[in-house]
Design brief:
By secondary structure, the protein is mainly beta. About 10% of the residues lie in helices and about 45% in strands. It contains one helix and six strands; from the N terminus they run ββββββα. A six-stranded antiparallel β-barrel has the order 1-2-3-6-5-4. The radius of gyration is 13 Å and the shape is globular.
Amino acid sequence: MEILNRKDKRINQRSPYSGHIFFVAKNGFNEGRLKNFSRSGLFINSKARLSVGEVITMALPFLSGKKVKCKGQIMRSTTEGFGIELFRNRSFAEVIIKKRGVDVQ
């Protein structure tokens, strides 16, 4: 469990999740591993180096039969990956709940 010394600015609690995710950024097509998600954001482990403020489009590959894309903005960047705030009204979490049965608080 990570203990933060600063005030956590997240709107919704994150749920752990491990799976591949694909995304397009300024530097082109990229791949990463989804670490966690919430109704309003997610964290992707990736070797791609993206800047805070950059907008990306994510494709959700584990949803067979449907093309589901979400846009978001990089809000935090670390050596492990980056935190993203989602733009869409239809939440990422709702899509995962429907397709994978993952519980989100």
